[in-house]
Amino acid sequence: MKLPEALRFVLALLLLRPATTVGLQRSQEANRVVPSTATLADCPRSCGNLSIDYPFGIGSGCSRQPDFDLRCVENSSAQAAAPRLFLQDGVTEIISDVSGTDQNTDFLAAFSHVISLRSDADVYNISWFPGKSFLFLPVIILNITGCNFDAYMLERSSNTMVGSCTVTCPTEGITDAVARQTCNGTGCCSVVIENMVTSLQFRFVRRRIGKLKLEGKSTRGLLWDTINITSDHAALSWVIRDDQQSSAGSLQNRSDYACRSNHSGYTQSNELSFLGYLCFCDSGYQGNPYILDGCSRDRGFDPYQRRNNCSRMCGNISVPFPFGIEYGCFGRKLFQLNCTNPTTSTLQFNSGPTIIVPTVKYININEGLLDVYYETPFDDRMMSISEGPQLYSSSSSGQSASLHWAVANLTCQEAQQNVSGYACVSTNSTCLGVVYSERGGPLGYRCTCVTGFDGNPYTTNGCQDVDECQTLMCKSTKGQSLPLGIAIGISVASGILLFILSANFIVRRWKRGIQKKLRRKYFRTNQGLLLEQLISGDENANDTTKIFSLAELEKATNNFDPTRIVGRGGHGMVYKGILSDQRVVAIKKSKVIAQIEITQFINEVAILSQINHRNIVKLFGCCLETEVPLLVYDFIPNGSLFGVLHNPNSNSSLSWDDCLRIAIEAAGALSYLHSAASVSIFHRDVKSTNILLDGNYTAKVSDFGASRLVPIDQTHVMTNIQGTFGYLDPEYYHTGILNEKSDVYSFGAVLVELLLRKEPIFTTDSGLKQNLSNYFLWEIREKPLAEIVAAHVLEEATEEEISGVAGVAEICLRLRGEERPTMKQVEMKLQHLRLERLRMRELAAKDQDIQPLSTVQSQVAHRSLATAGRKVGSSNSSSERSQNCYSLEQEFMSSATLPR
């Protein structure tokens, strides 16, 4: 993910401040003390149920630098509660494991603070700064409770506002618990901060609206006396600080170089690379690169059962060592199984495969196989399970399969050198190498009993001598002929009867079988196996994304009734449907069956399942059981921006305030796709038709069928030309090179639509077809803007605003992509224009003294500086609402620049 240049500059300035001398540790004295297993032997490795790895630590000498010095604090709220782990600032709580192994640089954090209100103060300020080595990763969700105040969040160093909300209490009797249930602005508001920041400054401005007049005794509770801030979600990323900002290649020569282990190196290719670096173990090695000999070959297997009386059965399935169900009963974490239902013998992986979690049916110790069953068939491909070294593989397909497994990612020679960790502990056992069945590469090693012995080679004396005579059932056969003949006759008769019954059963189910096979054929043709893997296995996918059955969608659309058609999307018809849980959805159904359509469908699901942004249409799932693949996403009731702008029969019109807001929201969504999502995404078909408007006329970017996922280390891709004329980037059209600036060009065309209120390809007065972008660029060189833009825009916008938006559109439409701005820069410029418009309106309102404070309080609700319950039909009312919404915020922004 890319950081804005301004934020990178601010964070770089942080490095110039003198380092604190409080809590100086010997880990900073790199010349005298080198971290190793021995020097860190007395350091706590856990706090409660959380584990801690160096360079983090608790106590003197246990961490590398002051920011990484943690505090384990006893929980005072309850005697039985586990202790809590905090950063050195004392307020940032760590709620997940803190690991220094293999670039695991993120952990979850929590923040809470209570402000007691005073009768003589209306403004309160606090800050949240976890340390110079940390950065808040992309999303922070904060819940704030209290009564009658405006809350503002700023990036502390740059004084840039990154979030705001308003809390009101219409009645005295509201409680904290009730307010938190919805957190919709009544007693509680929620703020989502998506900027990557290093510190937050909170500012709360209390409103004085007079006392509520209630009969009898006042019922005011603590909600009126405090402001309570809690984080609902926050993640921190860290680096090893490089205060000297060393050049590439010079770090290893410094005495304080952090990557101390053999077989380790460093990287500066993450979000905080301009502040420092990270260490990693070389390929084939695992462990902690920050301590001596921390990187090693796989040593994760423990050959000894650490617990007595381990359960070795799940129903009728035997679970022999090195597998186990309880802690202390398995050889390594990857071999922990979960007996979810002993009655039905349901045994599953505790942390299942990266794609689909199978059910274990049988464990074969000597052959190194697991017989498993998948609820959904999977394709002919290798499968890996869980994190850490890859120790499972399979080349089978279908719902039943056998997984090969190894106990460690080592050769037999390497394993035998580590006596304490060697898995083949039985006297009569031997080591065997395990390879990938398809690739032929090494998977690791396993154990088996030598010829003539049988049993468990992973337990002491587990391989026992085989009694061949008993195995072959060496008995006298005299007198057994008659019973044997009777048994054979009964078996044959039973077989014939079973055959007849089976044939009858097969005939009766034949028709249903054909239909099922047809659905399965469509499922595979539509690449359903790949989609299942993408949706269920991708850790970035939305939890609510699912695969719908055809029956569900037929019921939702009244068997795809033509009256339910609401439009046409990139893949064909779009139907309105109502699911069984009463969600209103849009169902996209292709008309043309072609491979490119299937590919675009897969592409759209893959992209949307990884995206969670308030200005991007929400994917609910898809259906794969028909010849035509179906896509199910949130129904957006007010159609597209194109329809509102250009449909003469539309009952809605957009004010200039609405246009600016929608442009900012769409720009923010595209900026997120380019630089803040888990992978860079180029939309490739940005146009007003694909900017939908929900019930509040909030922008929702849609239609990702033509989009491209781009690896984080690439800036462009070569593709077949695809897009819509009127919006298509001419540089991309001529070169076939797609990059983020292609979306910028298309967005510039949308801005021109908003200014001129003409279609992207429009008919001139002379009857000729004209490209709107070319027309705009030519006309602004020949005429004043007032003669070009729409009359509706001239009535509401100032000359400076029109000039500003036109200027943004002009640089977006430049022929050379390198001369265009980024979407983040476009968003920031539009935000500036809108804030300036609101500032001027606020000053005018104050001069005329026509905006009472009580009116403001009843109208501030929209978190993103938009008004709630917007009715777009009246431009004048829209302008008035925007003015009311911004009054207090502008007062705060004006005061924020004053010295404090």
UniProtKB/TrEMBL annotation:
Keywords recorded for this protein, A-Z: ATP-binding, Disulfide bond, Glycoprotein, Kinase, Membrane, Nucleotide-binding, Serine/threonine-protein kinase, Signal, Transferase, Transmembrane, Transmembrane helix
Positions of the Protein kinase domain: 560-835
Chief location category: membrane
Protein name: Protein kinase domain-containing protein
GO annotation terms (biological process): cell surface receptor signaling pathway
Region of interest called Disordered, as start-end residue ranges on this chain: 867-886
Any single Pfam family the record assigns to this protein: GUB_WAK_bind
Superkingdom classification of source: Eukaryota
Topological relation to the membrane, as annotated: Single-pass type I membrane protein
Secretion signal span: 1-21
GO cellular component term of the entry, any: membrane
TM region(s), chain numbering: 482-507
Record field: compositional bias (Low complexity): 874-886
Binding residues for ATP: K589
The keyword Nucleotide-binding appears for this protein: yes
UniProt GO MF annotations: ATP binding; polysaccharide binding; protein serine/threonine kinase activity
Organism for this UniProt entry: Triticum aestivum (Wheat)
Subcellular location: Membrane
